Amino acid sequence: MTRGSRKSWQYFGLGLAWFYLLLWPLLGIRDGELHFAATFAVWLRVAVGATICFALYRLGKAGRLDGVLNPLAAARDAVGDTLARAPRWMLLTPVIVFALAYPMLTNRYAQDVAINVLVYICLGLGLNVVVGLCGLLDLGYIAFYGVGAYTYALLSVHYSVPFWVCLPICATFAAVAGCFIGYPTLRMRGDYLAIVTLGFGEIVRIVINNWMALTGGPNGILGIKSPGIYIPHFVDGSFSFEYLLLRKLEYLYYVILALAAFTIVAVHRINFSRIGRAFEAIREDETAAELMGVDTFRFKLLAYALGAVFGGLAGAFFAARMRFVSPESFTFIESAMVLAMVVLGGMGSIPGVILGALALVALPEAFREFELYRMLAFGGAMAVMMLVRPAGLWPAARMGKRSDDTE
Amino acid sequence: MDYLFQQLINGLTLGGVYALVALGYTMVYGIIQLINFAHGEIFAAGGYLGVILLSYMASQGLMDSHPWFGLAFALILAMGYCAMLAMAVEKVAYKPLRQSSRLSVLLSALGMSIFLQNGLMLTQGVYDKAYPTEFTHGGFEWLGVRVSYMQIGILAVTALLLVLLNTLVFKTRIGKAMRATAQDKVMSALVGIHSDKVISTTFAIGAALAAAAGIMVGLYYGSVRYDMGFVPGIKAFAAAVLGGIGNITGAMIGGLIIGMVEILAAAYIPAGGEYKDVFAFVILIGVLYFMPTGIMGENVDDTRV
């Protein structure tokens, strides 16, 4: 054991002792008695887990695990190479076929989870335009989701406007809201922008919560209609269209699948367009971008509005699917969750965001019994990811050489 | 007129609490340019430690015989606990990221905030936890204004802590080191100031102040909740920005202004009660837009605004 490793183990032990001191008052002082055993049981589990992780980390750092890690890395690279060389349709076809056939293979519960995942994919990709491409940290993104949801809810309940007509209206409203919020805030940079968008997100929620006459306040809005389609109907030789409300889960699944596909294609096209390059230039160095002739303010506003459009579309679907909206669905924690998807998956990377949505929505369903610990794990994972893999699970492929983010 | 004085007293109490929390934000921002999102949760942890300690002491009968001693004891222990918590958060989530981009540290801070909030929820439960209130009753009427002993106590403790902090920052060696590190980290390191220790100390001091605020809010409103830190956290940050971020006197003034505005707006603007949380955000946005340096701030370089 070298001197450096002994020292790091000493620090590790100190950290565990520190953790016990912090944990004990919260768990150990109850009902007028001091308990030590209960805290110790919890602490011991955490300590064993942390020790194993730390030992592996130290071994990896000392090069003892190279025998296992190197072949794994080589295999990963080989798979990556093969995938990169395969034509794109070969990779996409199985995914598309699976996505289309999914409702026939699964039960209601799995379809419900899949719908959730797809909604969050739409949200994540929308936020990805703002955070991943343009580098503007937006902590109030869920407000646009709320704007979309309430727009559809109000139009549907008061004027019975059909879902498909509402979709573009919701998108427009969300984009307008994005411009309203973006106009005063986008002159700020970095962390000031983050806190101001957070403030705006909360303002939208508080207004929805208190504007009883329009939104029904905390009671929400009931009786929103599902999306409907006209299907051709033949009776006795006469031909007519029958109106069908898509209430069944599998129909709703196809609706959101179409929306998600639209979002993926749209974000992909934005990413590789002139606008996308301008966004990336702003992300990398705003001053330099402005110097090169990018109208930074206009493009930042555009990024905001584009992100808001996808949020609004997802919101309209959410309202149509739940047939009920209330302000509780649009809290800060939802914003943080969407942000966590973008960050964990890889900022600016479309497959990364999809992976992030899968990891954060579908994975907790698999560990149902640990439901309570879900948000705890989110928070921890967000901090740990920033330490070990700041670029995310599936980092965006970068074109050309760029300066490192050191600002 | 009596009503106005009543509201002013209430606003002063609330403003003092915001000022204590805002100091933590402003000191940390001044020294490492980070919005410490976890600060609101440290405040909540202080409130919880208060309810845990006071309930325990009440069950042992200590609060009946020596209520003031018990309160002071709980206050000091909670401040110490939160200082330890904040130092741990700093060591785990912020220190390894000193060289990374600002976005990474901010996201890490956000993660820690969610982590701590849910840690509190898991260990202490989802429901409101009530403070033992037998010893907080009482008050007096003066010129038609009702002042409770609790409010006097909060104002006195706040004033005491603010004076202590001012002495610490402007009269002691560690305070001098803190100011030097905030001004220029590289140069202060060159003249022998251990910046890691200074940063740790800054976090600890800010957290201790937030813990005191947490206990006082708990005593004032009678209960704590695991997510109580979020909204006051943002308001306190608004106070720090209003006063000029990085400026300690500014944070105190900003806190008082935000508290006053909130109480007066709730009292005098129609339907202001429901929208009282909005005013702090509106002030925050307005200040950043029209006066980004705040009341007492110096020039800010273009990386911030």
Automatic annotation (TrEMBL), chain A:
Any Pfam family: BPD_transp_2
Keyword Iron: no
Places the protein is found: Cell membrane
Identification of the protein by name: ABC-type branched-chain amino acid transport system, permease component
Membrane topology value: Multi-pass membrane protein
InterPro entries (alphabetical): ABC_transp_permease (IPR001851), LivM-like (IPR043428)
Keywords: Cell membrane, Membrane, Transmembrane, Transmembrane helix
Keyword presence, Ion transport: no
GO CC, alphabetical: plasma membrane
Annotated transmembrane regions: 12-29, 36-57, 86-105, 117-141, 161-183, 190-208, 251-270, 301-324, 336-363, 375-397
GO molecular-function terms, A-Z: branched-chain amino acid transmembrane transporter activity
Domain of life, source organism: Bacteria
Automatic annotation (TrEMBL), chain B:
CDD domains xref list: TM_PBP1_LivH_like
Membrane topology: Multi-pass membrane protein
Keywords: Amino-acid transport, Cell inner membrane, Cell membrane, Membrane, Transmembrane, Transmembrane helix, Transport
GO annotation terms (biological process): D-alanine transmembrane transport; L-alanine transport; L-isoleucine import across plasma membrane
Localization: Cell membrane
Source domain of life: Bacteria
Any one GO cellular component localisation term in the record: plasma membrane
Keyword Cell division in record: no
Predominant location category: membrane
Protein name: Branched-chain amino acid ABC-type transport system, permease component
